[in-house]
Fold this sequence. Notes:
CATH class of chain A: Alpha Beta
Strand order of the largest sheet of chain A: 1-2-3-4-5-6
Number of strands of chain A: 6
Largest interface: A-B, 18 and 22 residues
Number of domains of chain A: 1
Largest sheet of chain B: 5 strands, antiparallel
Largest sheet of chain A: 6 strands, mixed
Strand content of chain A: 25-35%
Strand content of chain B: 15-25%
Strand order of the largest sheet of chain B: 1-2-3-5-4
Oligomer: heterodimer
Structural class of chain B: alpha+beta
Helix content of chain B: 40-55%
Shape of chain A: globular
CATH architecture of chain A: 2-Layer Sandwich
Amino acid sequence: MHTAISDLDVPGTQSTPFISSHWETGELHMKGNSYPENSFEFFGQVFTWIEAYLAGDNGPLTLRLTLIYMNTSSVKAMMDILDLLEEAHEQGRAVEVNWLYDPRNERVMEMAEEFREDYTFPFHIVPTPDEDD
Amino acid sequence: MSSIDLYGLRSHFNRDQILLCFNGPISRSLIEEIGNALRNYLEADRAGPGAAMDVFAIYIELTQNIRHYVSRMGYSDRDGTATVVVARDDRGHYVIMAGNLVEPEDGQTLLERVESLAAMDKAELKAAYKAQLRKPREEGALSGAGLGLTDVARKSVEPLSARLSSMEGDQRVFFSLRAVI
């Protein structure tokens, strides 16, 4: 039996998204804009949690992303995270990304599609009118 | 020395349809605050959500590039001054310009980079962007600027343009970049 690391519960700010993770269900949710100056530091906590979850559990991993604008360093940090999922997927692990976006802003969809191009795990891009959840 | 002609300055801004102009040392929080103002102006200006996001994205990449450069060079507030302008052109496009002081050799490198990006079509820019994303971090002297500039070039509806202006009494140069949405 492995020990779970603490779940993330990070409130959003103007330039950083809200993050919440649930080890028991294997879900991680990020929502908001992401343009911190030091994205690697900020996304480090997400990377660490996912790495620990993938190593310490056998359950499925689902990322629910409701990210809007991302600066290029956030995009790069996100790519590192999705690379972790791809690696796990190749080893037979159930991983999945659901990217929700407001259909009024097609830029978000285009960005999600560019991410999806590089991966083979299930990656759903879902138009979702913004109802605050 | 003449006093500052505020009305003249205002007339100049109005004539050039300048929505937003900033000249001074920039901090992280200032970038965010000006960014908020920019978002509000774009909304009031009835920019579509896609165009508004592109203008905002270019503003963020260019100002963060300047911040990274200034901190890496250890410039003082005065030397780290950024000049940022967002305006409309006659066809209703948004023009985003940003400039800062750089070492002459960095200015030359940046100019060459901008020229090579300006010569690429959208497919080549996308390929360059994806290749840069995959490069290990902290590669090359102007690492931070690489991906950001390529992203700006991809979004711009006109090829990027840049220039270097020499400064009186300073061996450094003023690098300025222009993108259009």
